[in-house]
Amino acid sequence: MKRTFTTIALLFFIASAMAQKTADEVAAKVIDAMGGKEKLLTIKTVKKLGSLDIGGQKIPFNYYCVNGKAERTDYSFNGLTAFQIVLKDSGFNFSPFNGMANPERMTAEDVKLAQDELDQQTVLLDYAAKGHTLELMDPEDVDGVDAVQLKASLNNGKTIFFYIDPENYYVIRTKVKGISNGQEFTNISNYYNFQKTKEGILFAFVIDNVSFDTIELNKDIDNKLFESKK
Amino acid sequence: MKKIFFFITIVSLSKISTAQVTSATFGAMQARQIGPAVMGGRTTVIQGVDNEPRTIYIGTAGGGVWKTTNAGVTFNSVFDKYCQSIGAIAVDQQHPKTVYVGTGESNMRNTVSIGEGLYKTTDGGDNWSRVGGLDSTEHISKIIIDPKNSNTVYVAAPGPLWSDSKHRGLYKSTDGGKTFEKIFYINEKTGCADIAVDPSNTSIIYATTWEFRRKPYAFSSGGTNSGIFKSTDGGKTWKELTNGIPKKPIGRTAIALAPSEPNHLVAIIEAEKTGLYISNDGGETWKSQSSTVNVVSRPFYFSCLVIDPKDSKRVYRPGFQFSYSDDGGYSFADGGFSSAGVHSDHHALWVNPVYTNQLYLGTDGGVYMSTDRGASWIQLATLPVSQFYHVAFDSKIPYNVYGGLQDNGSWYAPSQSPFGIKNADWKALYGGDGFWVQPDGVDDNFVYAESQGGEIGRIDVKEGTSVTIKPQQGAGEEKLRFNWNTPIVIGTKNKKNLYMGAQYLYRSSDKGSTWTKISPDLTTNDKKKQEQEKSGGLSADNTSAENHCTIFTIAESPLDDNIVWVGTDDGNLQYTTDGGKTWTNVAANYAAAGIPAQTWVSSIEPSRYDKNIVYATFENHMYGDHRTYAAKSTDMGKTWKRFTSDEFTGFAHKIREDLLNKDLLFLGTEMGLFATVDGGNKWFRMKNNIPWKALVRDIQINPVTNDLILATHGRGIIIVDNITAMRNMTSDIASQEVLIFPGKPVNLTMGKLQTGGTQGDGWYGGNTSQQAPIQYYFKNRLNVGDVKVEVYNKEGKLVQSIPGTKRKGINVVYWNMRSTPPKVANGTKPDFSGLTAPQVLPGEYSIKIKVGDKTYDNKMQLVAEEKPTFTMADRKVQYETAMKLFNLHEQLATLTEGITNKQQVLKADLAKVKSDKVKKLIQEYIDKLEELRGTLVPTKQTSFFADEKRLREDISDVYQALCGQEAAPSNLQVARVDGLKTEVTKAVDKDKALTQQYAEKIKAALVKEGLGDNKPKVENKANQ
Questions:
Q1: Which of A168, B61, B99, B126 has the least CB density, counted as fewest CB within 10 Å?
Q2: Which value does ipTM take for this structure?
Q3: Fold designation for A2-226
């Protein structure tokens, strides 16, 4: 019996290792499709300028990130700008469209849940060292594509399901799940119009109804953008 | 085929390979699940997470698994890809994201569905895998995970209902569900009905066995192999518990163990004298105690018995009603809440182990929650798991859908409703179990509905009255035999014809006031299959569910009302070509096509293209055969060709031929909806927001809207809006890289049927978009390059640019039939006129679909209904008036932008000048400009709730009203535009005057200080 258990345990270990290897292989292919590890590691800042379409009106929509330190997402309408800033240890929301007179602090829980967004080199890169785990799941239909599904359980408690086009290993959809304020949330984003920057790094220039005109890497970003001032 | 090609613009002929038409081909054609949730559907199991009891999983009879993480405020379906019939759920309380689902309900009524085995998730329902090799058990009644060892899992499988099988008994896994060993098995007729595991010593297991069998015409519960057994070694050995147990034969036994006092057991044992039995010594001895009506009712159907996790004396018996005991089961009191609106027929109960006053109850009518141990209840009316048998529609706009539900009567609702279809939109029509509901073919104010066994009524919807019109036995005739699900059919060719079938076919042309029997007995009239009064086994159960040798389906030819087809539950397939004078039985012929002889005929579809063509579905599951049988005859049933496909799952309920394309067919089965675009050569499963294995019982196609309407037995009514694209699709067409579909004329409308409802009113089923659809097809998802859809008016002016979707298959982009909104002046508060545009006028618009660097042209016709309340002249005035306001907004935006720009320049100058006099002059100009700006837009923002009504807001008041109304502007609205124009002009003039007053002086002063030049620094377009 003992031998049987040992054999079963060994087989289980091998099976697990094979499954893990497969998840690693998929992650590696995604990283290659994005431009490769070396190039991804050169990302210091990301600046995306674009617009959000609402009924034909183009609403300026911008994203700034200093890798690992700070990110800001903002959009402007009618001369007013709403933003969300996430730093390592704090975060702020400001939406004049919802009646805010001043920026308001994000909860510690939400700040923690947003930390992975500061990783512009992708959470898949050196994921284990970052404290994440990966698991290869069954394929899932995404826009008619039989997408490879990779599940990343992040160190901040969030789970990201990556849906990957097997033809080119582009991440065409993510489903993010987590718990905030005691409630489970799910955010789904779809990615299109993939282009490489001049540095050779792949980005989706369209995310749902947001379209980016420019994506620039490693440009200086004014620190004032990350101050909680309206 | 030529015709279809003619209607499609093939913009790329670079055919690479023939593409298979699949569900993905129709990508963006997402179905609408319109509910209802108001009357729920049969709920079979409820299991929560002990240490996070807001997370609860609900298993249903035909609607899959639903999960709430907020104690039932909202639910999400988490099992849409798999079998929808759920028998058991178990949460691994040590790892609560690990959940097992046993498919195949075990409330063994006549319409119970079939399972496909055991599924497991380790991520709270995001992903599931079929595990354990229990795929053939068909019915799973309980799963228990060892509370001390997550790898040990027990599965109780009563097993197949309709046939002998080895796939039943008690199974055990010791590797977390990967593999199972059958640890307790009696024989091929006897399965495991229930289990209980002692949480203090998990080697102690109690199991009940059950000998049972259904036939199409009878049910038997009970036998000498049923009993209660105990193992004290984790299932290795078993002994039967007999001391105090009633003598055999016995039937189904439900057993429950008190978690707080594991030696205390209660069991409801179906026997000659069914009752509740109590053991206080771990099952060694039993005493008969209570036998209240609720305790003993229908043990085969009500098998739920629960003891409070903390209080061993508190015993719940959800059954026909809800009973509870406070003395460990010695006595029971009925909840008596039926009159308070809680649906009868209870199958599941979960007691929140943290707060044991909180109960969740699963019934035939949905899920209820109590916070006072069952004294009062609230329905969680957000679960759209209603179980329809059939669906029909009327000719109204929007059309209504009608249908009958398992144990929930007959209902109707609009297919669209302001802000979406809500629970409140559903109206009850008739009682009992509901089945066929038919609006009268000529007068929509009358509807025919029924309860089980052919209890038909004619309902006057306007008056809210009904008349019983059931055909009666004639002198010298045999007793009439009506099926549980008796067909009521309106003629397809002659809409005045109302048909109803017993063993004879009846027809009425006066709304059921007068019936004519137009056939002899069309069934086999096998007397051995007509002994329903003996049905039930130990507990007599004869509710018309087992009625047999009856007519089950009726179809009048769409081409000739003298041709009527009839199918019976005992396998006869008969037709008349002379209105019922003579009949021909072709039952012997379909068997030659590989369909078992005398198989239940579930639907017949005479073709609308050729009198000799007929389609039929057959189902043999009541003899243990779950294969899909659908066939076509082209010679009036002489010969048949069976449709086959690897895609098929589930026994067949309904086949439907499309109204315009003879090669487009739909097939509904117990496990999915299938379609073919080539006359049945290749079939594909329809998905796109249709649960992949939905129990599709009926299919209709609305000839006006071209909607496909599904009756599902567990997911309510599902509508696939406008299937025109399916009619136009072939594998050749699908092989094109890009296709543009011409749109049909679109009605200009605004706000009539808005979306935006929420689950606040229970389930919310969305509307069809009222916007103008622009359809195109991509062979593959577009990963590189963007898609823009641009709309131009007849003058060639760009009206709006819309981001295009890029999925594989058909994409649908909706144009809101408005222009791009105006630029609106900036202020310290938002003005949402910047997101609002006037609706355009009727006419032809050019559509340019830009895919990467290629452009594809199309046209769109917008049409407007001429109404007395909104004539074409009114529409033009409305549009022109709105556009005047649009222009005023843009003019004001330019003016304020100019002012702000000037102020910025002046402030920069102010910082540089040295002369106090010049400083004062500049500041004065800045202040005057600010004073002017302060009259145009809000500039203070003291509070979000403090209005600052300025000229911008005045314009918006009228502008937004006009943009949102389908009516001519009032005289005062028109006059107001002139007033506002004057105000804007005055503001422009004021700005000009200020420029004249200050600009030159400041410029000269700056030059004098060596700061300026002679060029004007700020231009204001509004001044030009």
A1: A168
A2: 0.90
A3: outer membrane lipoprotein receptor (LolB), chain A (2.50.20)
